[in-house]
Amino acid sequence: MLRSLILHCLPHDLVIDFHRLHPSKQDKAARSIEDENTSLSVGISEHSSCGGDQLNDILSFIKEEISSLEMAELTNDRRTRTTKLANTCKMAAGLLTTTNIAEFCCFYKSNSHLTGNCKTTLSLAEKKTILKSMGYCFKCTKKGHNAKRCFNKRVKCSLCGSNHATSMHDPTYRPKAKNRTTVAPSTTTVAPATNSCGSTTTLYASALLQTEEVLLQTATIIASSNSSSVPVRIILDGGSQRTFVKENIVARLQPDTHDTVKLRILPFGDSNNSEPKLFKRVRIKLRSLHSDEAIEILAIVVPEICSTAFQYVRSTELDILGLKLADTSYLNETEFEIGMLIGADIYWSIVKDDFKRITDNLVAIDTIFGWTLQGPISTQGTSVTSTNLDVGVIEDNSLESLVDRIERLWVVDDITSNHHKLQVDDIIEKHIRKNGTRYEASLLWRNDECTIDNNRGGALKGLRRSLVKLSEDPEKLRQYDEIIREMISSGVAEICDEAEKTNERTYFMPHRPVGRGEERETTKTRIVFNASARSGGNPSLNDLLWSGPNLLPDILKLILNFRLGKHGITADIERAFLQIELAQKDRKVHRFFWILSLDDLLSIIILQMNRVTFGVTCSPFLLIGALLKHLEDESINFPETCELLKESFYVDDLIVSVDDFEEAVKLFNETREILSRASMNIRKWKSNNEKLRQIFDTNESNNISKHKVLGLIWFMEIDTLAVDLEKLCQQISFDVVTKRTILQTLASVYDPLGMLSPFVIKMKLIFQEAWKQSLAWDEILPASMLHEWKKSVSEIHLLRALTISRYVFDSPHQVEKQLHIFADASPRAYGSVAYIRSRNLDENIRISFLYAKSRLRDKRITLPKMELCADLEAARMRCYLVEKLRVKFDSIYLWTDSKITLYWIRSSKFQKDVFVYNRVQEIQQLTANDNWNHCPGSINPADLLTRGVSAQTLLSCETWLNGPSWLYNDISEWPISDQDFETPMTAVDFCLLTIPQSTTQSDCAVPDNPIQIERFSQYRRLLRVTAYVLRYVDLLRKRVGFKEYLTADELRRAELFWIKRVQFEVFKEEVNALSNRQLVPKCSKILSLNP
User: Fold this and answer.
1) pTM of this prediction?
2) CATH numbers and ranges of domains, the chain
3) What are the pLDDT digits (tens) for 69-104?
4) CA angle, corner 32, sides to 31 and 36, nearest 5?
C-alpha cells in the first residue's frame, strides 16, 4: 500500500523506469508462468520479501535519479547558459513574431534557415528524395524517424493548415471552401531571417484569400543617405508605433547610426510580456519619385519586414480617376519587396488630408509620395498574389507606464549608447528667416494642407468664464486688461476686422491670467494662451503642429560649467517669445477674444497675435532656433562671444561664468550688442562680483542677495549654491502618509548635482520597501515604515543650510587639476561621486564637490555585481564630465573599494557571466586600466551614497562636502595599493557572487555560518554554493588545482555538510554528550536508536 502511494506521487516517466528495474509481484508471477522450472523459487522469494525492502528500493531509486540529474545538469551547464544567452538577445519584431533556433537546411545545405521554412523552387518529389536520402521525416523535416512514425502534432503548414512543414506543401492542393462568398480565414506563413544571435525571426502573417484581396498603403520611393541612394518599396501602417527598415536596405545605403533603442514585443493574442531587446536606429532620407518632396526619418533596423509578394490592380480603374500612384508596382506587376515600414511615429508627416473613394471600400489616400490605395478589391478573373504583412503593436520603453518609471529607481542601468543631435539646419532655414531687424518664423505644421475646425464658440464660452472670475477681483481685471492693451500698442497683437470673411484656417486660443509670485522682479501677472483647447472633439492647434527637434541644452552641463569660472553671470531676454514675428500666413490661427473696454464687458472684439506665442507646441523650437541662427550669423563679427553664448543659453536664460574681469565686461557689452541686432533686449544681469554689478544696470534689482539659477538657489554675496526646499517644507504633511505622498515628496526634491543624495537615498529606500510590500497608492504605511518616514521628512528643513561653493577653484590660475570619482555599493544601493582636486601657484590644495549620483539595488543583483554597477556609473560619469566640462584635467583617478571588480576591470580574461562581461567591456572602453585604484571602504566618500545618513550628519560631514582628507596629502600618502589585481582569482570570487555581504561596520563580524541558508530558495543552488566554498577551503589548505565544474562527489560532500549542520543544531545536546563519551539525555528523540 505504501509503495503504491509513493509511486502515485512520482512523475510518470520515473514510475516506468522504477517498474523496469524493480518489477512487482504480479509482474514476476506473470513471468514465472512462462518458466515452470523457476516458479517455486519465485514464489518463495516473494513470500520472503517485506515492505521495508520495497521502501528502501524506492528511496534508493529516487536518490540515484537525483544524483544522475545533478551530474547531467553539471555536464550541460555550459550549453544551458549559451541557450539562455541566445534566447535573451535584444531584438524587435512586429505583431506576429515566431522565433526558432537556427539549424541546417537540407535543401540548400545552409545554416541560414530551417528546412521546414525553406522557400526553394524544388518540386515536392525532389524534396522528398533529398529528405529520404538523408533520413529526414517528410512531415516535420526532422531527423531520426519517418512520416509514418512522426508524432509531432505541433507542426502545421502555414499555407493549408495541414500537419506538415510549410516547405512540404503540395502546390496542387486546393482546400474546399465552405462558403464561396466569404474570405477564408487567415493563416500564418514564415519567412526566415537570421538575427545576430542565431535565431530565426519572422514578423508578418499572410492571408489565404479566395474571392477578395485587401490592398495596403504602399509606395515606391528613393531612400538615400550621405553615401548612396536606392529605390525602396515602403508600406504605411498606422498600427505600428515605430518605423522599421530591413537590414539589406541598410547594407546598401550605409546610413549614419543615430542610436540604439530598446523595444519589447507584444505578439497578437499574447498577453505575455517578452524581454525588451536592443535595436539599432538609423537616419534615412525619403524622396518621392514624382516630386522633390522629401522627409528625413529615423528607422529601426530589423532582419525582415514581410514577404516579397506584391499586390496589383487593373490600371484602367485608376486611369479614369487620373491618380498618380505612389507605388509603381501596382501598374507594372513586378515583384518588389517591402523594404521599409512607416509607423505611426511619422505616418501623419507623410499622409495628407485629401482622399478619394474609388469604390465603397477602396480608398485612395494622398501622401507626399503620391496616391496610395487601401481597401478590398475583387480578384475575379485576375491573378492575385497577396502581401504577407501584419505588423501591429510594438511596446516601447519610451512609452513607459507609471510603474515602469517608478521601478527605474532601483532597476540596474541598461547599457545604452550616446544620443546624437538631430540635423536641424534645414528645418531652421525653412521656417526661420530674418525680416529686417527681427526674425520671422512660420509654424511647424504636421501637414501643410491640413485644415482646422473653427472653435469660435468654445473660445467665447471660455472668455465668459474668465470674465466672471476676474470680475470678483476688479484690480486683477484692470491689470489683465492693461497687459492686453499694452500688447496691442506695442504691435504684439492687433485687432481684427470682425466682418472679414476668410476661407483660411482659423483658430481661437483661450487665455487666462497667471500669477507669478511676489518674488518675481518684473510683472506679477502674465497672460497664458491655451493652444491645446479642443472643441466638439476636433483637434486643437497643438494637435496639428510638430514640436520640432529638441534644441534644449543639457541642464547639468550648464550648471557644471557655471561653476568653473570665477565670475558667475546670469541674465535673461525680455519677453523673448514676443520678439519673434509670426509669419503672416499663420496669424489667423493665433486669434483670441477680449472685451472692448472695462466699461462694457459684453462687447467682444477679435485680436490676433503677430508674434510667436508661449504655449504653442513649436514655440520653444522657433525661439531657440532663431537665437542659434542669429548667433551663427553674428559669429563673423563676434566669434568668441557667439561661441560662448551658443552653449550658455537655456531658452531665454543666460547662465555663464568667466575667469577674467575684463572678459566679463566684454561679454556684457558684446552680448547686448549682438541681441540688439535681433531686436532683443537682454536684462536682469546678475553676478557674484560687486564691481560687475555696478557696471550692470543698477536699476534692475541688483540689491537682491539670492537668485534662482536653473532651479538652484545662488547666494551671490557668498557665491554658494543650495537646493530650493522652501515649497517642499511647506507642503509636507504628517497626517496621512501613503505611497502616493512619498512619491510626491521625492518628485519635489530637485537636486541636479546630487548634493542631498546621501539623505534622499533614505527616502527612496522607504518608497522601495512600500513598493515591495505591494501597498496600494492610498494605503497608510505600516507603523515601522511610517516612523522611519516621519523621522526623515522632519529633518528636511535642516538641509536648507547645506550649501556648496559655486566656484570649484580658488583662483583662475591652477598648476594642476585632477578629477577624482569614487564608487561604492551596499546591499541596498550603489552610486558614485566626483570631486575636483586643484593645486594653485602657492601649492595650496583645494577639493570641491562636483557631482553625485545614486541608484537603488535590484533585489536580483549580488553585492559584487552591485559594486560593478557602481564602477560602471563612475566610468560613465568620467566620460560625461571630460566631454561636457570646459576644463582639461591633468589626471583622472577612479576609486573603488571592491578588489573583485577591480580584478574584473583590469583583467583581460573572458568573463563567462554575461552580466559581468557586458559591463566590464563598457568600463574598459570608457576608461584606462591605470585610471582605477583601490581604497578602503572606510575612507570612501561614496559609502554615504549607499547607506544613507541623517540631515544633521550630512551637514557636519566634511568628507562629503570637501572630499576625503587624505586627498589633501601628497600622492605618496594616498591609499593606493600595490597589490597585483591582474592575477587569476581563486574560487572564492565565484562564491562571493552568491554569498550575501554587507559593508556596514555592524555586519563586519563573520557569522558562525558564512552561508545563510534562509537566503536560498533552491536546494540545488545551496549545495552548489556550499561545494564551491568547501573547494576554496581545500585550495587554501592543500594548494591544489580544481576542475572547471563541480563533481558529483563535491555535491554529496556539500549535502553531508548540511545534514551534519542541521543535526548539530537540532540535536546539539546529544552531539555534545556523545563527543564527551556520555549518554544522551533520556528525553532525547534519538534515544531509541541507541547512539
Assistant:
1) 0.59
2) 2-75 (no CATH), 101-174 (no CATH), 212-397 (2.40.70.10), 426-715 (3.10.10.10), 721-803 (no CATH), 807-992 (3.30.420.10), 1006-1075 (no CATH)
3) 766 655 554 444 444 333 433 333 333 333 333 456
4) 135
